[in-house]
Amino acid sequence: MGKQNEKLIKMMKEYDQKQLPEWFTGECYTHGAEVTNRFGGDSCHLNNVELSMYDFIMGATMVMEMDKSYRHGMVVELRKGLDWFRKNNSEAYMILLD
Asked: What is the mean pLDDT of each successive set of 10 residues along the chain, which is 98 residues long?
């Protein structure tokens, strides 16, 4: 039973990773979570893949807010992340990132 579980978990991780774009360099989580908008207080549940992208977006945003010497590629990746999120979960995008 242990080997079957490990194989299933590996297959699920590979599937989840395929849900994210090739350029994505963040961590792909195994669980989703409830996320609250830092300004308005509204919240929604994100699955593990959406949460991975959300954290990537928020991390890039924080780095750019704190360090004005960020690289151009980070801006491009942030915009790609926002576009990905808008396309894959527009409702959560409007609640959390718009």
From this structure: 65 70 90 92 94 94 78 84 96 94
Question: At what angle are helices 48-66 and 2-19 packed, to 10 degrees?
Answer: 50
Pick from 64, 72, 77: nearest CA to 24? 77
Strand intervals (E) in 5-86? 33-36, 43-46
Domain count across the chain:
1
Global pTM reads: 0.82
Domain carrying residue 22: 2-96
Q: Which of 46, 45, 52, 57 has the alpha carbon at shortest distance from 17?
A: 52
Q: How far apart are CA 10 and CA 29, in angstroms?
A: 13
Size of the chain, expressed as the number of residues it contains: 98
- The torsion angles phi and psi of 20, rounded to 5 degrees, stand at -95, 150
